[in-house]
Amino acid sequence: MYNVISAINNTIPITMFNRGAAGKIFEEVKKTGAKVVMKNNTAECVLISPEDYVQLIDELNDAKLLTLASERLAHFNIDECISEEEVDKKFGFTPEMLDNDEVEFE
Fold first, then answer.
1. Helix (H, G, I), strand (E, B) or coil at 104
2. Which of 39, 41, 46, 87 has the fewest C-beta atoms under 10 angstroms from its C-beta?
3. Judging by beta carbons within 10 Å of its beta carbon (0-12, 13-18, 19+), is residue 21 exposed, middle or buried?
4. What fold characterizes domain 2-48?
5. pLDDT digits (tens, 9 = 90+) for 49-97
6. Where are the alpha helices (DSSP H) in 10-103?
7. d(Cα 68, Cα 59) in Å, to the nearest integer?
């Protein structure tokens, strides 16, 4: 029953925008969270605050990075690894460059 009440409380008919209630709707989104805008009895869009959007995108990016890391670990082979010294030699890094932050890693 909670899901039905929650759905009712979090849906907004598009006619409210047509009647000039956008400001009120935006304030409600900031106070209570996301709202689903309905048009012709169909969900048209979801309104969320900028802060919630940034958090959602950050969580999505974290999930993608976790998936990538998990895939890489699943195929990790210690025998294919090379030492730090070998990397430095291959790319010409010197201890002085590393101490002075001249080398940037990603």
1. coil
2. 41
3. middle
4. YefM-like fold (3.40.1620)
5. 999 999 999 999 999 999 999 999 999 998 889 998 898 889 888 887 7
6. 15-18, 22-32, 50-74, 84-91, 95-99
7. 14
Cα 78 to Cα 53, 70, 81, 93, distances in angstroms: 39, 16, 5, 23
- The answer to whether the pTM exceeds 0.90 is no
**DSSP single-letter state for residue 19:** T
Residue 29 token pair: 């989104």
- For the chain, the domains span 2-48, 52-99
Q: Which residue type, as a one-letter code, is found at position 31?
A: K
| Radius of gyration from C-alpha coordinates of the chain | 25
Q: Which residues have a Cβ under 8 Å from the Cβ of 10 and sit 6 or more positions away?
A: 32, 33, 34, 35, 36
